[in-house]
Amino acid sequence: MAHPSAERHASKRRRAKPVVTEGARHLPAETPPAHDAIRLEGADWLIALGLALITVAVFLPALANGFVWDDDVNFVGNPSYRGLGWTQLRWMFTSAHLGHYIPLTWMTLGFDHVLWGMNPRGYHATNLLLHAANAGLLYLLALRLMAAAWPAAPEERGGVRLGAAGAALLFALHPLRVESVAWITERRDVLSGLLAFLTVLAYLRACRERAPAWRRRWYWVALGLFVLALLSKSMLVTLPVILLVLDVYPLRRLSGDLRRWVEPAGWPVLAEKIPFVLASLAASVVALLAVREAGAAVSLSEVGWAGRAAIVAYGLGFYLWKTLAPLGLSPLYEVPSGLTLFDPRCLLGLSLAVAISALVIARRRRWPWLTAAWVTYLVTLLPVVGIVHNGPQIAADRYSYLPTVAWALLAGAGVRLAWRLWQTGRLGRAPAVALAALGIACLVALAGLTWRQIPVWRDAEALWGHALRTAPSGFAHASLGVALAQRGRLDAAIAHYRDALRIKPSLAIVHYNLANALADQGHAAQAVTHYREALRLRPGDPDTHYNLAFTLAAQGQTLPAIDHYRQALQINPRFREARANLDRLLRARERAKE
Fold first, then answer.
1. pLDDT-wise least confident of 13-27, 148-162, 290-304, 345-359
2. What burial class does residue 139 get, using C-beta atoms within 10 Å of its C-beta: 0-12 exposed, 13-18 middle, 19+ buried?
3. What is the mean pLDDT of residues 501-521?
4. Closest CA to 81 of 194, 185, 233
5. CB–CB of 206/218 below 8 Å?
6. DSSP labels for 163-205?
């Protein structure tokens, strides 16, 4: 992706039969593809390694973090993934734990367990190494894309490398990456990112070959990597669209005029995407079935189309703003009660998206780099922006892992352009030094914010305490209450549970946890009240029936206790504790009758 003036400069250096920018006619045999103008050298691999090492250094404090949030149910309380035996592999490929079908991600976590057991340091190390590898891969990818957008002379190699390195560091060191790296559950982000970058690199290599798609070795490598990416996280279902964007710019294999895609010259380029699209459709169906099976999707009765439109509008502005000003980051941004499209934050996000889209449409021929970046950003964000809504969040830092790559590449292209202007004397020494200092200062500032954000994920108490300071919500109060209760601080836990219910009284799990804490303190009557409210909100929970029965039995209310034990067994016939307690109560009643 490059500046328009760069594009005009490149056009002056082309031969008599240049790369076709309209239509999809293949290049003549004697003309090398634009993206073959730069070849990877030994120095490039060393630079990629150096960028990975810088990333490791900045994220190194993550190794001190523990298991937090969903890590408890994913790893601490889940023996099914622990290992790489047939039993574990069968579970990985046949289950959709918590609504996610990610067998390849589970395989890496099973390998971690083989190496480290239940030591979180090893799991964090793998996340960190994968993210560091992504920094190096993005550097190599940026080299290829910049060469395709703006062929470089040998003397310009330094500017290309500098721009690619800037793009990689901007992506890798940004504080928005912390959630994906410092939270073990988000292994799927860094792993799918690795496979996505490899897929695009393989695709670019395949585009250099002259044979039909089915006879290109690198084409099949790209397709295989794409399937692996889908098995690590289904968010990659939109990657075929990104490949089409690259075909338009910077590869210029397709016209920017969509109507010309259906002409015979464009058919081969479109046809080679069919296997990718079929894989995406299959992954989308599996992902939707997984979400439905887990009951994770929010129904239209809870959040209608108007509410979803508001969430989408909010997200469009949120990720752009947090990319530019990554301050006040939180593990959870809860959906505000009564959110509508007329909320100022939603109107601002929608207005910003409309304005950028209008600019892109108006300048699509002169600024193809902006069009490519904007479409890539929107398409990669589409699966998580809120159309299919799940969970209490309106947005999440982790969702930005791949969408913001487009902006990092655009910034890197700007660095390359500044280098070119300086080389040709159109940018004076003083402005060049000022721009360089500003760029370095931005990267250092981002690294500092990232370093400060990583300890937020140290443990549950630190995580949810930070959430309450930055983005207060009922969910954060409830989660902090759980962390405090696990440490035996019941009074503080009860206070946070009550705060959570004041914000959102309909949280059944909070009523359940509050009832447990009250029962542990000996306040049985209050506990029964909250157990009953939890059952009213979520009648099919066997644990709530069981705990209510246990509390009623302790108060001598045998008949209601028997009834709730029976209901728990109707929901879960394998509930052994409920069956054992029910048998004891029934035997005690028989003895009392005798």
1. 13-27
2. buried
3. 94
4. 185
5. yes
6. HHHHHHHHHHH-GGGHHHHHSGGGHHHHHHHHHHHHHHHHHHH
Tokens of 97: 């734990």
Q: Summarize pLDDT for 242-287 with one digit per residue, the tens.
A: 999 999 999 999 988 888 888 888 888 999 999 999 999 999 999 9
Last-in-domain residue among 436, 454, 472: 454
Dihedral (C-alpha) 424, 428, 429, 435: value to the nearest 10 degrees? -100
Gap between the Cα atoms of 151 and 140, Å rounded:
15
Residue 289 falls inside a structural domain: yes
Is residue 19 a part of any domain in this protein?
Answer: no
| Domain identity same for 375 and 468 | no
Give the total number of structural domains in the chain: 2
Closest to 252 in 3D by CA, of 38, 408, 35: 35
Instruction: State how far the Cα of 211 lies from the Cα of 23, in Å rounded to an integer.
Output: 19
Phi, psi values for residue 334, rounded to 5°? -75, 145
Structure tokens at 395: 């947005």
CATH number, residue 509: 1.25.40.10
- How many angstroms from the chain centroid is the CA of residue 517? 34
Model pLDDT, residue 261: 87
Same-domain check for residues 411 and 484: no
pLDDT (0 to 100) of residue 301 = 58
Residues 188-202 have pLDDT tens digits of 999 999 999 999 999
Pair 265, 304 in one domain = yes
Q: What residues contact 159, with CB distance under 8 A and at least 6 apart?
A: 152, 415, 416, 419, 420, 423
Predicted pLDDT at 6: 41
What count of other Cβ atoms lies within 10 Å of the Cβ of residue 127?
Answer: 26
Mean pLDDT of 502-513: 93
- pLDDT for 298: 63
Report the alpha-carbon distance of residue 343 to residue 72 in Å, rounded. 35
**Are 387 and 281 within one domain?**
yes
504: which DSSP letter?
Answer: -
**Are 262 and 324 in the same domain?**
yes
321 and 335 share a domain?
yes
Residue 82 region by backbone torsions, left for phi larger than 0, else alpha for psi between -120 and 50, else beta: beta
Q: What is the mean pLDDT of residues 105-125?
A: 97
For residue 27, pLDDT beyond 60 = no
In a domain, 507, yes or no: yes
Integer Cα distance of 55 and 378 in angstroms: 26
Please report, for residues 269, 549, 565, the alpha-carbon distance to residue 570 in angstroms, rounded to integers and kept in the order given.
57, 14, 9
Can you tell me whether residue 394 is helix, strand or coil? strand
pLDDT computed for residue 25 by the predictor? 33
* Domain edge (last residue) among 418, 435, 454: 454
Residue 15 lies in a domain: no
Between CA 132 and CA 116 the distance in angstroms is: 20
Residue 117 has pLDDT above 50, yes or no: yes
User: What ranges in 76-119 are assigned the alpha helix state H?
Assistant: 86-94, 103-116
What is the residue range of 544's domain? 460-593
Mean of the pLDDT values across residues 480-492?
94
| 183 and 103 belong to one structural domain | yes
Co-location of 278 and 400 in the same domain: yes
Enter the pTM of the model: 0.88
